[in-house]
């Protein structure tokens, strides 16, 4: 059973269509490979996550409201990375320690 057209003009049309389709598929593959390379390059260039975070409220000038371990899911979008000395100083100044990630325990800073 032959599923190809029997005459040359239709075979040439089919060949043209297949070449066009193959070109589109190859272009899509090239685009996806480029995007993947860019994604991997972005991951390699990403700075490391901070070890400690200070969470801030809605006001731009407000003092910090909580100290978090870096990567804590409770930190939210208004958190900024800080070093361990800054995190300890914030705890000493009365900034609340996150009850989920417990930065006070990891920093060796426990009340009472």
The count of strands amounts to 4
| Low-pLDDT stretches | none
Largest sheet features: 4 strands, mixed
Instruction: State the shape.
Output: rod-shaped
How do the helices and strands follow one another from N- to C-terminus?
HEEEHEH
Structural class: alpha+beta
Helicity range: 40-55%
Break the fold down into its secondary structure elements and pairings.
Blueprint: H1 8-45, E1 52-56, E2 64-69, E3 79-82, H2 84-92, E4 96-97, H3 103-106
Parallel strand pairs: 2-4
Antiparallel strand pairs: 1-2, 1-3
Characterise this structure.
- This protein is α+β, with helices and mostly antiparallel strands.
- The protein folds into two domains: 46 residues; 55 residues, no CATH class.
- Helices cover 46% and strands 15% of the residues.
- A four-stranded mixed β-sheet has the order 3-1-2-4.
- Strand 1 and strand 2 form a beta hairpin.
- The longest helix has 38 residues.
- The mean pLDDT is 91.
Give a brief outline of the structure:
With 112 residues, the protein is α+β, with helices and mostly antiparallel strands. The protein contains three helices and four strands.
Structure keywords:
alpha+beta, rod-shaped, 3 helices, 15% strand, 4-stranded mixed beta sheet, 112 residues
């Amino acid at each position: 059973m032959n599923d190809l057209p029997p005459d040359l003009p239709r075979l040439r049309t089919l060949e043209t269509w297949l070449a066009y389709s193959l070109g589109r598929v190859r272009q899509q593959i090239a685009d996806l490979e480029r995007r993947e390379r860019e994604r991997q390059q972005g991951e390699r260039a990403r700075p490391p996550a901070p070890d400690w975070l200070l969470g801030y409220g809605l006001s731009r000038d407000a003092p910090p409201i909580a100290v978090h371990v870096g990567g804590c899911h409770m930190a939210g979008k208004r958190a900024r990375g800080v070093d361990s000395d800054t995190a300890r100083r914030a705890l000493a100044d009365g900034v609340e320690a996150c009850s989920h990630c417990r930065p006070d325990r990891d920093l060796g800073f426990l009340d009472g």
